[in-house]
């Protein structure tokens, strides 16, 4: 609960002035946020992973991030931070308890060996935030992909649609941008559901879809 509270506080903190004149109109934004953090292909595991915003709030964390344990967080009434500092540390397996002379099996962490500042609010175009705020059920989808020598960021607007003919539902992503392309998105996204333009202009868009 403490971790969830910290992230909600971060997301509710408001948009950066770097987003231009629209910042004030998002004092109480009408969109949610979905955050994914994952290890880049071929990267080493990241012990003691921690992401902290410009306000000092924790955005996400992992004892050891690997290719098997990426994370997803979802929140309503969200905003975006100015920037996030992402760090990871050396892993210490086994800790000596001086009073007993025993070595524990608990994982501990040493010095910081990765330290990167990821700009967020200043990078996301105003049109993305406007579109996200003007439709029911829309969310800003942020992907943090952790490499050995840095952090990649991408963003898009996530929506859930239903096909009235089949009753099937699925997620679609529009206005995609950042360091990853629609050909190599965060793993929640399928290529056929991702476009860098507006949803209605995508060749696979179905005008009969219902948004939920």
Q: Which percent range fits the helix content?
A: under 10%
What coarse outline follows from CA principal-axis ratios? elongated
Radius of gyration: 19 Å
Q: Termini, distance in Å?
A: 27 Å
SS element count, helices: 2
Multimer state: single chain
Overall structural class, as computed from helix and strand content, comes to mainly beta
Mean model confidence by pLDDT: 82
Largest sheet: 6 strands, mixed
Name the helix and strand elements from N-terminus to C-terminus, one letter apiece: HEEEEEEHEEEE
Q: Ranges with pLDDT <50 over ≥5 residues? A: 1-28
> In total, how many beta strands?
10
| Beta-strand content bin | over 45%
SSE inventory with pairings:
Elements (H helix, E strand, L loop, with lengths): L1 H10 L20 E8 L6 E8 L4 E8 L5 E5 L7 E15 L4 E18 L6 H8 L5 E9 L2 E13 L6 E10 L31 E2 L1
Description:
With about 210 residues, the chain is mainly beta. It contains 2 helices and 10 strands, in the order H-E-E-E-E-E-E-H-E-E-E-E. The protein is about 10% helix and about 45% strand. Strands 1, 4, 7, 8, 9 and 10 form a 6-stranded mixed beta sheet that branches. A 4-stranded antiparallel beta sheet has the order 3-2-5-6. The two termini are about 25 Å apart.
In short:
This protein is mainly beta and 212 residues long. It has helices at 2-11, 126-133, and strands at residues 32-39, 46-53, 58-65, 71-75, 83-97, 102-119, 139-147, 150-162, 169-178, 210-211.
């Amino acid at each position: 609960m403490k971790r969830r509270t910290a992230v909600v506080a971060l997301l509710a903190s408001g948009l950066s002035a770097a987003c231009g004149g629209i910042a004030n109109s998002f004092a109480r934004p009408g969109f949610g946020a979905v955050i994914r953090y994952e290890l880049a292909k071929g990267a080493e595991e990241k012990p003691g992973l921690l992401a902290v915003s410009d306000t000092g709030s924790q955005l996400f964390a992992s004892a050891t991030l690997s290719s098997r344990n990426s994370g997803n967080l979802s929140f309503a009434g969200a905003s975006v931070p100015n920037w996030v500092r992402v760090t990871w540390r050396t892993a210490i397996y086994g800790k000596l308890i001086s009073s007993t002379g025993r070595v524990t099996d608990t994982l501990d962490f040493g010095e910081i060996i990765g330290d990167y500042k990821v700009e967020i609010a200043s990078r996301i175009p105003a049109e993305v935030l406007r579109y996200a705020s003007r439709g029911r059920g829309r969310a800003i989808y942020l992907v943090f992909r952790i490499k050995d020598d840095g952090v990649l960021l991408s963003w898009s607007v996530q929506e859930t649609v239903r096909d009235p003919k089949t009753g099937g539902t699925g997620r679609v992503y529009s206005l995609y941008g950042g360091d990853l392309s629609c050909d190599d998105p965060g793993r929640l996204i399928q290529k056929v559901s991702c476009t860098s333009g507006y949803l209605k202009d995508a060749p696979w868009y179905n005008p009969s879809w219902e948004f939920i």
